[in-house]
Amino acid sequence: MSNRSVVVNTDDVETFERDDARETPRDPRAFGCSRLAFRNLAFSLRSSSGDGSTTRTILEPTSGTFECGEMAAIMGPSGCGKTTLLDMLSGKKTATYTGDVYLNGLPRDQLFSRVTSYVPQEDVIPAHVTVFEAVAFVQELRSESKMNQSERRAAVDDVLSLLGIAELRDELVGDARVRGISGGQKRRVTLARGLAGGSQIVFADEPTTGLSSTDAENVSRAMAIASRRMGVTFVAVIHQPRVEVVDMFDSLILLTSNPGRAIYNGKFAGAAAYFAAAGAPVPSKGNPADFFLDVITPGAKGEKSNALATWYQDVQRKEVERRVDASLAGSKRATIDVLRETAKINGLDPASIHPSPIAATFLTQLRVLLNRNLTLTKRNKAGLRLRIGVSVMQGLIVGLAFYDIGSKPPISSLSFFFMMLQMGAIANMAIMPELIQTRLILKLEQADALYSTGASIIVQSSVNNVLAILGNFVTSIIMFSFSRVSWSKFSTVYGWALLNFLTVTNYLRVIAAVAPSPSESVQAAMPGLLFFILFNNFFVSRATAPVFIKWALYISPLAWTIEQIVTGVYGSNVEVQSFYGYDASDGRTWTALCVLLAEMALFQTLEVFLLKRSTFVKR
Question: Where does the UniProt annotation place the signal sequence (predicted)?
Fold first, then answer.
């Protein structure tokens, strides 16, 4: 498998780039059959200041319709609310807004995310998967009907061929550190992921931004071919498109800013005549899209945004409302019926489709997620080498520092046991940034109803904990070898150290669940870690802690762990027990076990709760 940046020059790709997308015939297996209508979608931000609360309007009430297989563009200057409108249409807006969205004449329901997909401005795909694997992952999770492996491969290959990326199927996607396919090719892979699950409508946020002019045209061509051939509706926010890109869109919504208001809402082909009638004729030469943006951008030379906004209210708004009324009065089709009809078209059993927000069963989610995580782990050889290397170095450094500590008086060994526990916390801190970056992928995929939060946590925890435990075990073995503490005590020491390690790991996962960025996650984790380290029954013990702070020693996992390790290794040493106030009774051991397991479960529950209630993708 190559890590090179791939440039493909095949007959299929040349045909893809040469064909006129507008002349693409509808495929007999086309499954697109949905229309979208929206009425009075609006969004405002409320802020508080010393003078009281103020409201800033981002987008005034806006209505419109999109027909089956339509290519629709949303354009406007910065701050006009075009991405806000897209997020409201797609159901991804996390802040409160007003207005209604209808699919096939009925209000949007819980199955809406199963027949739509959202393409973010940045391509968020794991770097170490191939193009085929990236698309197959979505296809398997969004296709509820039973399919064998050959049928799944054929379905994915069809999508790759449709978008002109079939020859890239075995190439790594890549990222800034892993060399893979180009930016334009990656954007088409993201679009393929949206189509693979049978989406009726694809919402794309600036799919051509940041691409070369050729890549931008190819991405737009891919969307146009899919819309014509499969009947899929594309609603895309477009920023400064070239003429070749503009020609591929059927309809246009133009918004101005300060505040966001509709300027035009209709067919792209009719925009020039509309602007001419409004007193802003389009020049005969040049890109009409550039002219539209110039004339509706407040502050630009020759702009007429306020006049055009008034013209829209007086001339076109009623026509748009009539289109919305006609769409809502048309034939009604429930989302579950759309899903079953799509299955039937693809030769699958419609009866196997169930009205659940997530298509795949929980066991299927676990299997597919686990397979991807194991694949990513296996291919990320640099990450594995770094993890093992750091574990070995930690063991060597601390082991040499405590060489032959086992032959010293028992009271001298406590610092060694403390460092064993401390190494686990340090190792986990190092992987928090990676954990948060992975969570961004998980949250975006969950937003498209690919799998549940519970399934992702189970798989992520399992794989990450195994790797973390492996690294911690290597460190502990090396440290213990240098210490010359009797190997007969290793199972006691490591058993309690492992319980503490997992408890602290779950605490750090709670922080990673809510921290907005990798750097902030480390800062947010420090107070809790300092609390655990300070009140560890060694620096501050039950024998020395002031009465008013002794409670801290009963909730710090390190305090319970240190006590059990020391009493397990030196249970008959009365001096150590008396000096630190340790209790070597069986009752204390059972209490320590219950406390650590309870805290482990508490932190895991908190992680699930916070992930379900919070989002990294605030819109």
Answer: none
Q: What is the mean pLDDT of the chain?
A: 86
Which residue in the block uniquely carries the two structure tokens 């479960």? 601
**pLDDT for 354:** 86
Distance (Å, whole) CA 508 – CA 501: 11
Q: Given the DSSP bridges, would you call strands 98-103 and 71-75 parallel, antiparallel or unpaired?
A: unpaired
Query: Under a CB-based contact definition with an 8 Å cutoff, are residues 202 and 235 in contact?
Result: yes
Asked whether 350 and 341 are in contact (CB, 8 A), the reply is yes
Convert 470-527 into a string of H (helix), E (strand) and C (coil): HHHHHHHHHHHHHHCCCHHHHHHHHHHHHHHHHHHHHHHHHHHHHCCCHHHHHHHHHH
Has residue 1 got a pLDDT over 50? no
Q: How many CB atoms lie within 10 A of CB 272?
A: 17
Identify the three-state secondary structure at position 170. Answer: coil
Where residue 575 falls among pLDDT bands split at 50, 70, 90?
A: confident
- Highest-confidence segment of 139-143, 406-410, 491-495: 491-495
Name the CATH superfamily, with its identifier, for domain 12-347.
Answer: P-loop containing nucleotide triphosphate hydrolases (3.40.50.300)
Q: Indicate the pTM of the whole model.
A: 0.82
Exposure of 547 by Cβ count < 10 A (0-12 exposed, 13-18 middle, 19+ buried)? exposed
Q: What does the domain layout of the chain look like in residue ranges?
A: 12-347, 362-613
For the purposes of burial, counting CB atoms within 10 Å of the CB of 534, is it exposed (0-12), middle (13-18) or buried (19 or more)? middle
Q: Which of 139-143, 188-192, 254-258 is the most confident on average?
A: 254-258
What is the dihedral sign for C-alpha 477, 481, 482, 483? Answer: positive
Q: Has residue 2 got a pLDDT over 60?
A: no
